[in-house]
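Protocol step 4 of 6: record predicted structures for both targets in the notebook before any analysis. Target 1:
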Amino acid sequence: MRDLPVIDAHHHFWDPVRNDYPWLDPRRPMIPFRYGDYGAMRGRPFLPEDYDALTGHHRVVASVTMEGEWNPADPTGESRWMAGLAARTGRPAAHVAQAWLDRADVEAVLAAQAALPLVKGVRHKPRAAPSPAQVERGAPGSMGDPRWRAGYARLAAHGLHFELQTPWWHLDEALDLVAAHPETPLVLNHTGLPSDRSEEGLAGWRAAMRRLATAPQVWVKISGLGLPGRPWRLEDNRAIIRETIEIFGAGRCLFASNFPVDGLCGSFETIFDGFRAAVEDLPWAEQLALFHDNAIRLYRLGLPAAG
């Protein structure tokens, strides 16, 4: 197999033994989780040496960490901890930080996050409806909330992009948001969460993704494709991977592991072997873009492109 460098565009490092991650604290109640029982992750650190033990034959040359829902009373605490980890180990190469866009302290938080060279963007999971039929436009905490949008409007001044995790039935709200703020790149996490694999569900996901892709500043991470109660299989995910690339183009898609979370569904090797098999017929330059070069551009990593 041809050598392919990988920049993992979305994973976590955390240490819930020493740091405060409420959802990973085994002394606290579990939260509803899209993969079901996540007890195997609770109370267990996931650090560079743990990550390295899982990557197998894949040549991961750099990676980007995502905020892991550190205690929101201290939104910059994880970023400072991550900067210290990078100083000691050389990883991660970039970090996406926590910021609550509808909080009164959003300006101070964004300024503090942007002051850390490791931080390239922020994530705030907006309020989401449990189904397409229950979407309430403008609901408090949603992307249509005026306070939320006011926080989003501050991102460009701090040189930060936004990472969005939301079900596909909220992507029209995201399209409204990026139309109002075209200067701010938006990165859709986890392929728009196509968890409903029925014909109707996939048709809704596909149409929403096509509408969002009309905004040129939107990127998408192909990740988070696990299904509850079953192992990660290429036959479940190949069509979604290829449709996402067809919709957004190879220049705006990135592959990512979402580890250790997606470790609940499959091994790192299984998932990245699946990604590689899904695109093995694409031109080599496009494969390099998906696995490596696009992450350099989006996260401004200062590394040489491979393609």
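Target 2:
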Amino acid sequence: MTRFRDDPEADALGQALAALRKARGLSQAEAGARMGVTSQAWGLYEAGRRPGMFRPDVQRRLTAALDLTPEDLALEMARQPVSPTRAAERLEEGGRAFSANGTAGSVRRTLQLRDDDLAPWAGSGVVLVYDLAVWPRRDQGCVVETDDGPVIGLYHRGDRDTVVLRGPSGDKRVLERSRIGSVGAVVARLEGVGWPQ
């Protein structure tokens, strides 16, 4: 049997899915039937224990079963708090407890892209929701807050002195940790939200 490590991001996604299902007045069995899976399978998604739950096609199927969109799920996820204990443990266990500054809970921020430098991953107008309490996985989008402003890219690697991001075309950017204030994983990309400029 596969064992899943606690993952605050997966937990938040599962909690958001459960909140949306309950708001629609559906049981896990009813939601699962609409998606073509068992109530147990649906329950694993809500528990954050189902592989592939971050894939866009899976999120489209999950939200379609609730007559919603992946954007609805992302917005609900942005509202869900990350367990303070789990967030702190996740930063500690990877030996990457960087710029947590004692922050134990979710610290979510938004940033709207103004250009297409990250296309096709994300284009102009897309709003990124990033969480400073969640360190990015390899090839996950992240926002690095530096002295010169935010730097956005796909996380490649990090060590004691640097953080390396790569762009969609594969180009790499090395950032010195001495110039970095914080690093946060992108937990949602919202398109067509119509946020104020």
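Step 5 preliminary note on target 2. The two ends are 49 Å apart (CA to CA). The domain at 98-190 is CATH 2.10.109.10 (Umud Fragment, subunit A).
Proceed to step 6 after PI sign-off.
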